[in-house]
Amino acid sequence: MPRRLWLPSGLDERVGSWTADFIGAVSNGGCHQGDGVRVCSQASLPQSRWAAALAEAGLGFHSEAYSWCVVFGRYQVRELLSRQGMHPRRSLGQNFVVDANTTRRIAQLAGVGPADHVVEIGPGLGALTQALLETGAAVTAVERDPRLIDVLKAELEGSAVTLVKGDAMHLDWNGLLGQEQWVMVSNLPYNVATPLVVGILEEVHQVKRMLVMVQREVGERMVATAGGQAYGAVSVKVAYFANAKIARRVARTVFVPQPKVDSVLVDIHRRDRPGLEPAMVSYEELCKVLRAGFAHRRKMLRRSLAAMAGPEVFAKAGISGEARAEELDLAAWGRLAAACTSDLLNPEPGRSR
């Protein structure tokens, strides 16, 4: 089946000097400018001229096997949702990207190409998926909403994408990804972004890099360092597994529906080895201490960790019991967790835990 080609109203004004050739190519390819979707099986003009016309029109461009399509814009998303009788579900955190420049920029920042395997969680209507396909990467898209699966099949038919219906929070990742190395590039649903990223770092070792779009506040927590207002247990967990930074801010205006907050792109590169030696303290023990320490972040640690750490534990770790959770970096948390574990396993005579 051929691809679909969107031709939004106002194309003539935006294409300018390329209008005649562009519309001629559309007609020769079996398409006609109109108010909906038309099918184009082949292009009669060279790809370079298509690309120039589409670029001047401010539209996305994709080519594969002589089939052509324009990346989704706000007009197309609203029209498609209306035609399908669909509404974004707040319960699934659905906010669809409708700006082609944004999706192309994300694909560029991801740095992926024909040699890469890319997994996308929550492809929505396929705007970012199309931009990733332009790079030549092999894309696997995981979508939970069954309504969108049929839309994606229709809009992406003929492309080199693998669609998987499933909940990313409960997916058999090993079965899906196999032994290959993967890059995750996603506009993550806001309501699962944090547990999903941490879960991928903890359990899905095939994913070596991530470029994820999340709420600004969530992204700032992921990359925060000790002493910062956003610093928390999530910051320590991410730092344990990876190096993370904010790659770009994304305005709320590029989404439909428009969220109440801005977003950021977080660039995450998995470390070759964890940030703490497992022989020093296990990740599980580290998490236990983190949970207790950040449960009451305004309290001094000697109070929030009273059930597991006495003065001797703080002395052994080289940390003041009057410090607060946000003051400790990964290394300090590692020393404190190791001291707590050692004290629990080898309590001093006459004292129990």
Could you characterize what this model shows?
There is one protein chain. The chain is α/β, with parallel strands linked by helices and 353 residues long. The protein folds into three domains: 3-70, no CATH class; 87-270, Vaccinia Virus protein VP39 (Rossmann fold, 3-Layer(aba) Sandwich); 283-345, Orthogonal Bundle (Helicase, Ruva Protein, domain 3), CATH 1.10.8. The protein has 15 helices and 13 strands. The longest helix is centred in the last third of the chain and has 16 residues, at 330-345. It is elongated. The termini are far apart.
Summarize the structure.
This protein has 353 residues and is α/β, with parallel strands linked by helices. Helices cover 39% and strands 19% of the residues.
Defining traits:
seven-stranded mixed beta sheet; alpha/beta; two-stranded antiparallel ribbon; 353 residues; 39% helix; 15 helices; 3 domains; Helicase, Ruva Protein, domain 3; disordered C terminus; Rossmann fold
Topology:
Layout (H helix, E strand, L loop, with lengths): L2 E4 L4 H5 L3 H10 L8 E4 L6 H11 L4 E3 L2 E3 L4 H11 L11 E2 L2 H11 L6 E5 L5 H8 L3 E6 L2 H10 L5 E5 L7 H5 L4 E6 L5 H11 L3 E9 H8 L9 H9 E9 L4 E2 L6 E8 L12 H13 L5 H4 L6 H7 L12 H16 L8
Helix pairs in contact: 5-6, 9-11, 12-15, 14-15
